[in-house]
Amino acid sequence: MSPSYLFKVVTVGSAAVGKTSMILRYVTGRFREYYAPTLGADFSVKHIDFDKTTVKLQIWDLGSQDFLGQVRAGFYPGARGVVFLFDVTSEESYEALNDWKKEVDTHIKDYRSVVVANKTDLEDDRVVKKKEGKKVANEFDAAYIETSVKLNENVDDAFMLIAQSIMDDFG
Fold this sequence. Notes:
Elements lengths: L3 E9 L6 H10 L12 E10 L2 E10 L6 H5 L5 E9 L3 H5 L1 H11 L4 E7 L11 H10 L3 E4 L8 H14 L3
Parallel strand pairs: 1-3, 1-4, 4-5, 5-6
Antiparallel strand pairs: 2-3
């Protein structure tokens, strides 16, 4: 029987950057056209096969509203991975990444992370350049990837990056 791991991953970022949509797309293959804020937290599960190892990703979608800070605090413990998500059409969501990093670092001491630049299908509205995204990922010691959840571009790859990074800790 092959070894099996369970890894908790939390997804954080400003409101409306696509956290819930990204998780929904990854787990079910569907895309949701409308925005509905996550109040509190929700989670989904996805199995990934690496060679002879099965990994079960428990992906937590944490609500981003300021008043949920105390609620979010209870969902960080046990997380091995963090997906920091921002919207390439929103300078504010990019600038907020440092606040998200501070919050995460307050609750989790040892984790792997990926910075995800979402909504690349909206190229005409883009305000955050790829090099800026890579810069913050480098500062966070994180992987970097650009996605379009709407077009299903690099969504699976983003979660594979975080899962592989966590797996590397297990040698």
